Structure formats: structure tokens, C-alpha cells
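Human: If only I could read C-alpha cells as easily as an amino acid sequence. Take your time, and here it is.
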Amino acid sequence: MSPTDKLTKRQQEVLEVIAGHLDEVGYPPTIRELGDALGISSTNGVNDHLKALERKGFLTREDGKSRTMRPLFWPDGTPYEGGANSGGEVEHFVDDEVHQIPVVGRIAAGAPLTAVEQTDEVVAIGEGLLGRQSEVFGLKVKGDSMIDDGIFDGDYIFVRRQPDARDGQIVAAMIDGEATVKRLFREGDKVRLQPANEAMEPIYVHADQARETVVIGPVVGVFRRM
């Protein structure tokens, strides 16, 4: 099948960048790499161009994943037969994107830590590890109250921002403005924040104590630098 619609100048540029990346390294660029190469800051903007290229018959990709992109034709309608790695066969990747997860501060795995310190650090994590999580941020762990759950001092935890969690989930929580990571249990008129360290006692917050307890969100991943 040949393409039927003409491309805009921008769509031609997108197609040429994808083809050039394939010819140079043997696999397609990520959406972020495409945006950087074209000076497009919005991933939605890049996606709009990709969808237009698919709709016009110049590009194919599986389930909308950037790492499975393959040009079908050059802008002038000539069939694309490139790809550096094996006569036009494109390597498929599990990860669609490498996400830059912001590390917004540190959190106590022990006694609650006063204030979450702001930092400019980021950790790059592939989508295949965390899945298509939205509103995820990182926190650096201080303390050893969660060691039996495999969370150690200096680790990074990834938290999905949401105001609630199931009983038994590991969560990041704030108690009177102090941050901590524990397992959450609701027990009648109180909340138990349970450490995963036999040497440490749980934190109980009773309804009549007038202590503000806020669940920041469940922990969805752990990262450790070796």
C-alpha cells in the first residue's frame, strides 16, 4: 500500500529523523529523543506528528510504542528499506520510554523525618520496570525500618501520588508535616504505620489525637545504586 496524503514540512522532518536514527544505530528513537532532535518540548506534540504519519501511511508502530516505529515510505513516497542492524529488520524493545523520575527529597525509614528536602536529582527508569505509571516521583530513603521488605538506607523509592492506599501496602505518608515510609493498616479509630524491622515499634495515630496524617501514595518501586 502506498501513501496517499502529502506530508507537512514538520512531518517530513519527523520521518527523516526516525529513518536517520534507524540507519545509524539500527533501532528507532524514543519520543523524548525525537523531541530533542526536533526542538519539540511536548511529548504530546511529537505524538501528534507520529499519529499523522501513521494515518497517512508513512509509518507503522505497535500499540503506539516509539521503540517499534518503522518508516514505510520516505516523504517522496519511495519505499523505506533502511535499518542498520539486519537488512531492514528492526530490533524491538520491551521499554517504550526511559522516564526521568524526579527525586523530590528524602524520607525516613525510621522515625518520621522533618520536612522533605527538595533536590534537583533525577533517576532514569525504563517503562518496562515501572509500567505506565503517572504522577510518579522518587524519594531517597534514610534509616533501616523497612529492611525486611528490602528497602535499605540510601535506596530510592518510587511513589505514585494518590491520596489513598490499600491496607498492607507500603506507603509514603506525612504525620504532622513529617515524612515516613511504612506499611499502612487501618484498625478501627486508629492508623498503624508498621515498620519492616523487628527491632522497631509501629507508629499509631489515633483519631482523637488531632494529628494530621496524609498518605502521599503507595510505593511502586525501589532503586539501589551499587
Remarks:
- The two ends are 51 Å apart (CA to CA).
- Residues 84-96 have pLDDT under 50 and may be disordered.
